[in-house]
Amino acid sequence: MRVGHVAAVLAVVLVAAYSGRVAARAARQPEVVGEILAGILVVPAVLAVGGTPTLAAVLPTDVVGPLKVIGQIGLVLFLVGVAHELRHGGSGLGARAVGWVTAGSFVPALLTGLVMAAWVVWLADPDLRGDAPVPALVLMIAVALSVTAVPVLARVLEDRGMVDSPAGKLAMAAAVVTDSAAWVLLVVAVGISGGLVVSLVLVALGVAVTVVGRVLLRSRVPVSAAGRFPRATGAGIAGVALLVAFQFEHWGLTAVFGSFVVGLAIPGGVWAGAVRAVTSTGRLLVPVFFVVAGMGVANAPRGSVPWTAIAVAIALAVVGKVGGGYLGGRLAGQDRRTAMTVGVLVNTRGLTEIVVLQAGYSAGLLSVQLFLALVVMALATTGMTGPLLSIIERTRAPKPVPVPELPGSRS
């Protein structure tokens, strides 16, 4: 392994990610959209400029291997914070309202995912369908269309001052529940292709580790240490998360599951600062993960961009999330404008969707073409969130214009 070469590529990736964030802010988009695009487009850009020989020189095998490991480390550390937020986030709203919005943002999206899966299995080109078992493929596509990115949604709400709005609270509460369910379904989908019984045993083991971990970390000594030594605590959390994540991957599940086990096991309170440090480190390295994903996209055969699949995925994704979120908001008793805002917000996919798709692609559930179509869908639906919210804001009911008094109308 050439350490200097790896360090140079890593520096270029981080600079590209920073540039992507700057460009996204200038375009009034969530920063993660620019970050994902920058990471994914690094490899195609090298190919376009210098062709395959240049790509082989810039990213030889002994450099790609360490990059994959670094990307995985970043992803695991970042998802520890995501899981922790899923566990401890709250909406402060009534259970009935949250229940309707959650059902509306999840069930119709799952159904549209099943529609797309049926199209892929029975009508689409065999190259798009791939070789995955039908049940695993169907569940994978359904999960892909039902995800809402909690981290990206939180950033959108913060940037637009909507954190405490009814629509923002409802959307975030629904996203927390739907993403939790989506991760479970993802594990099942991967398990179907690799041995469902073994996967269910591992899931049960993960649940047990989570429960035991929460009990142990709530005791006096760990809580005191976390409060006094937050940096050392963060380093310990990172080490345990990597150990657990890669062990579960070695056993046949995705490393994502292991990171969620650790994130869900960590209590709130004094532990939050240490978790934030772990998440920040992971976020810094996640662009490397996108570069690795971009290599898979770049390896797609030339002339095989699945335009029809992209159009179908975007259309069904918008119908399932925006339409379903709107329906859930109306059933929850919200006015039309608030319900539509909820629908637009839960249509934000971003980083979470890319992680789900990469897990499905690595497990052999998604072909390169289908992976590419769903990645474009994730970016498109996330990118349309800001413009659609701006349109909704401009459609507010105008303030009543005072009627001028006629001369002599006063008594």
From TrEMBL:
Domain Cation/H+ exchanger transmembrane: 14-391
Protein localization: Membrane
Protein source organism: Saccharothrix texasensis
Cellular component GO terms held in the UniProt record: membrane
Keywords: Ion transport, Membrane, Transmembrane, Transmembrane helix, Transport
GO BP: proton transmembrane transport
Membrane topology field: Multi-pass membrane protein
Listed Pfam families: Na_H_Exchanger (PF00999)
TM segment ranges: 6-24, 36-57, 69-86, 98-122, 134-158, 170-190, 196-217, 229-248, 254-272, 284-301, 307-327, 339-361, 367-389
Keyword Transmembrane carried by entry: yes
GO molecular function: antiporter activity
Listed name of the protein: Transporter (CPA2 family)
